[in-house]
Amino acid sequence: MERRDNKRSWSASNGEPASSSSSSSTSPAAVLDGGVILSKILSDHKMTWDGFLNDIWQTQPFVFSWNESKSRSSTLPGSIDGCTDPTATTVLAKDDAGRWRDEFMTKDPWREIVAQGWNIVLALLEKSQANLLDSTTTKSCNNGRPMHGFEAPLIFQNQQVLSVEECETLYRNNLFGAYLDGASMVFNHADLLNAHLAFLCQDFQQKRTESIGFPHVYANCYLTPPKSQTAPPHADDRDVLIFQVLGKKQWQIYSQVPVPYPYPHEQVGKDGLEVPSVILQGPKAFDDVLYPGDILYVPRGMVHQAQSTDDSLSFHVTVAIATHDWTLARNMSRQIEATLMRIVDYRTSILPFTGTDREATVAKIQDQINNAFQRLQKEVTPQIVLQDIETRIDNHNREAFSDRMSLIHSARVAGGIDHGLIKTNAITTENDGNTMLQRVGSVAASSITYTSIIRAATPSEKAYAQSTLMCGTSSGLNVREEVADAVMKIISTIKVSVGTNQRFQVANLRSVVDNPCPQLCDLTLLCLAKRTVELGVCAVVV
After folding, report:
1. Given this model, what pLDDT does residue 181 score?
2. What is the CATH number of the domain that holds 62?
3. Cα–chain-centroid distance for residue 7?
4. DSSP 8-state secondary structure symbol assigned to residue 504
5. Is 483 found in the same domain as 337?
6. Major location, coarse class (predicted)?
7. Same domain, 316 and 348
8. Residues 534, 528: Cα–Cα separation, whole Å
């Protein structure tokens, strides 16, 4: 992928979470004994950990299919699109919506994560949206940098990541507006944003004394609208496990590997490195659809691409294993450099010299090289190399553990998922006694769920919403071309009902349109409702 100076690089998040100052006094809970998910995945497929490492690891892709038939894909808990009654298969309409339940995390945590898929998507969107607006309003006092500990989602259009400036110009940092326009999103290090994903990573990340698990993992999440492809064909510098949570996605993995075990600067399909055409024209090692609950292992260096199906959005979690950082070459080079830097004689400059000195200089360099090899053999030992790897992994794990446990502790205490709702102190009332804040504007929009009821906004409500648009929010509406006609039909139908008692449930907005296109998915309807309430076109019935 071409990387421009004003672009954010989607290959930049290569492994290690940013350090954070957050801490937690929470001790490891019983639910974090570890290895629950990975052990169950392997046992369900009659596979041992050693068998996985010996037969599959870094050699071939492999699918751990959900232990039910694929015909269940449209009715799985957490799968929204295609359901006759979406609220019946999600936790949105229940009293325990999104709540943390320890018994599920010890019995079948992966199934629980799939069941919570819709809530996890909303939590990531709402929390990231709130953080984006907060960081936007504090730019002047933070030298234009994002808030500490927050990594803004990457927004993709036409398989290209948008720059910060483009996101502000097109969407004013409104993620729901971006999705409504057909944008895909990548939430890097989502295990530092959501308790369920924090648990997932902690479960996969075991101590070296354990018999199963990886030294260090982190989670990136991909949200893709129907009939879309987030990124072009590319290879990664890490091994990954793809956890399909919502919807379906067609994956293609190519058999030929352009760069074996690539480092970050060798990832084809990223940062201007083209994927050789012979790879894309060659045979495929995998070409199939992932359904909710399926898990796909993709080895480091294998070129792949994925596209959501025509009738379903896709949300998957990528558990990344930063194997490029644990190589012998990389870690030996660190130790070799550190050793040579400590030798004072090697700090002197070789140049300049006269022509007659060249032969003597070459001989001197050869002696120094010979001495260096002897010294390196003594000082760069396998124990030192391994200790360096372990120390850096332990440092990453210590930071990640603190942040993850803080999320899990908060979720357990609160009994629910923190959606990171936008807060404001502005409150205005009308004669009906309800706060204007609850009906229109950004705060009202943040409270909307799939079961919310909306209506046409009154002139005074629209004026209030427009006057209180937060700094950095959009005053317009960008809509994906495929759904533009349907969106206009929905908006016009609601607007002409002003002054009547007509009400519209978000879940039923599709019924307003004759023969709606498949791309008018449930999340699109939710984003439309949020944006129209934020802009004052519609109001929430409270």
Report:
1. 94
2. 2.60.120.650
3. 18
4. E
5. no
6. nucleus
7. no
8. 10
Residue 541 CA, chain-centre distance (Å), reads: 33
Specify the residue for token string 């009154």.
458
Report residue 105 as tokens: 């995390």
Cβ(298)–Cβ(58) below 8 Å:
no
* Residue 50, SS3 per DSSP: helix
Q: What angle do CA 151, 155, 160 make, to 5 degrees?
A: 125
Q: Supply the pTM of this predicted model.
A: 0.85
Rounded CA gap, 213 and 198, in Å? Answer: 15
Domain region containing 145: 30-325+403-414
pLDDT at res. 216: 92
At 155 the three-state DSSP class reads strand
Check if the beta carbon of residue 303 is closer than 8 Å to that of residue 269.
yes
Across the chain, which has 542 residues, the per-10-residue mean pLDDT values are: 42 46 39 71 90 94 75 40 36 44 70 88 90 58 43 92 89 91 95 91 74 89 96 96 96 96 94 94 96 96 95 94 92 93 89 76 90 93 92 89 89 60 39 73 89 94 85 71 94 91 93 90 94 94 89
CA 423 remoteness from chain centre:
24
- Structure tokens given for 284: 């495929």
> Which has the closest alpha carbon to 191: 123, 237, 104, 96?
123
- 235's enclosing H/E stretch is none
Burial of 159 (0-12, 13-18, 19+ CB in 10 A): middle
